[in-house]
Amino acid sequence: MAKVAIANVKTGMKLLKPVINDSGMVMLGEGTILTDQMINKLNNMNISFVYVEGSQAKTKSKEALINEINERFQKSGTNEQMVLLHKLMIEHIEETYK
Length: 98
Known about the structure:
Elements: E1 2-5, E2 19-20, E3 26-28, H1 36-44, E4 49-52, H2 62-73, H3 80-96
Antiparallel strand pairs: 1-4, 2-3
């Protein structure tokens, strides 16, 4: 099973978990083969990711990504907005690699 960001979803991928909106309504059921139209609708509904069949190709390890992010933010110092952005990026990577 792969958790895939909507931006990386491709036509023909098969859902392994249903897509549920904020109200708890099933928008697309488990086993649905995604089309371009469905992907566009998910994007418009602000769905950020789906679970699809197959394995997610991770080009870098979690540790490598975190190190890269930490290096990029070293120069930002204590700027409040940059500290928050740094924190959010690390949290996103941690969540993605669960």
